[in-house]
Design a protein that fits this description.
Number of strands: 10
CATH class of the largest domain: Alpha Beta
Radius of gyration: 18 Å
Bound molecules: nicotinamide-adenine-dinucleotide
CATH superfamily of the largest domain: NAD(P)-binding Rossmann-like Domain
CATH architecture of the largest domain: 3-Layer(aba) Sandwich
Strand content: 5-15%
Number of helices: 10
């Protein structure tokens, strides 16, 4: 397929000059010497338009992966691709893709295979904002069902669509996002549906690890604490008094940044984690230890 066909399909291709791929990475807070830990890997990252997905796409590309992303929000996904481009990183994306729609999921995976021929890593960072309410106000149709579809169904659909390609390629790594909400209750918001959804992702991923073991398919979850992203800022958790109250309850005394999570995903995606499957890693500033 030529470049014109890709653009017609809404795929944006950004290529880094080879000499720019091997280099250090500086974030707002950290300067790390990168070592090409994902060289040669094809990584699908969903939800690259914001938050954790965006940061995973950028960190993975800095580490030498060929990233093929997607998002339902074409403008935000394009902005991530442009940011990658200006940093000299190789990121491609197809958008809009609605991960709750099986035909869209299949189109995304088909395009990845057509473009790269195989898939090594899947990061399921795309998610619809959960609905927060205590049980007395939790309506089934309006709040519960959309939370389950937006947090659980879309992860299942991606895993199912990618699975045969991981098997065909001799294995790979799936990284899903649970949450501290899957491990403990919270007083600062009505986490009922969200905690059920994230508990489901955690349990589903453990089962995937068991089913995938014989095929060298690894599946792990990261359980983030409160991370400043589009999702959490839209709920008012990342500013002012609410943020300060939450931060004060975290042993490391701050809320998370997307790169805190992306560096854990980087490890799980890399061959350094080749004997690591079926685990959940809380990355939460110590929240679940307290
Ligand atoms: N931010 C946190 O504090 C936190 C804590 C625990 C777990 N998590 C989990 O981490 C993951 C990423 O969260 P985030 O905070 O970065 O979210 P975010 O809302 O900042 O970003 C999610 C991205 O997914 C995209 N998206 C939404 N619906 C989509 C759909 N139907 N199809 C395709 N793309 C879609 C959005 O456009 C957005 O770009 C989620 O699973 C979330 O539940 C986040």
């Amino acid at each position: 397929m030529n470049l014109g066909n890709y653009l017609a399909l809404g795929i944006v291709l950004v290529r880094a000059p080879a000499e720019q791929v091997h280099r250090g990475c500086s974030s707002s807070r950290y300067t790390l010497e990168m070592t090409n830990r994902l060289a040669g890997k094809i990584a699908l990252v969903t939800g690259i338009g914001a938050g954790i997905g965006r940061e995973c796409a950028l960190v993975f590309a800095r580490e030498g992966a060929a990233v093929f992303g997607c998002d339902i929000d074409a403008a935000r996904a394009s902005a991530t691709v442009a940011a990658a481009h200006s940093a000299g990183l190789a990121v491609e994306a197809i958008h809009p893709i609605d991960l709750t729609k099986p035909p869209d999921v299949q189109r995304y995976v088909d395009q990845a295979i057509e473009r790269h021929g195989r898939i090594d890593v899947l990061v399921n960072a795309g998610a619809i904002n959960p609905q927060f309410a205590p049980i007395s106000e939790m309506s089934y149709e309006r709040l519960w069902v959309p939370t389950m579809v937006g947090e659980v169904d879309l992860v299942f659909l991606m895993c199912k669509a990618v699975w045969p390609h991981l098997m065909a390629g001799g294995g790979g790594s799936i990284i899903n996002f649970a949450s501290v909400a899957a491990l403990r209750g919270a007083e600062f918001a009505g986490m009922l549906a969200h905690s059920a959804g994230k508990g489901a992702v955690l349990a589903m991923t453990r089962q995937l690890a068991v089913e995938g073991g014989a095929h060298n398919i690894r599946a792990n979850t990261i359980a983030p604490g409160l991370v400043a992203t589009m999702a959490t800022s839209s709920q008012g958790f990342t500013e002012g008094e609410k943020r300060d109250r939450i931060a004060a309850s975290i042993p490391l005394r701050r809320i998370g940044r997307p790169e805190d999570i992306a560096y854990c995903a980087l490890y799980l995606a890399s061959d350094e984690a080749s004997w690591v499957t079926g685990i959940n890693i809380p990355v939460d500033g110590g929240t679940t230890a307290a």
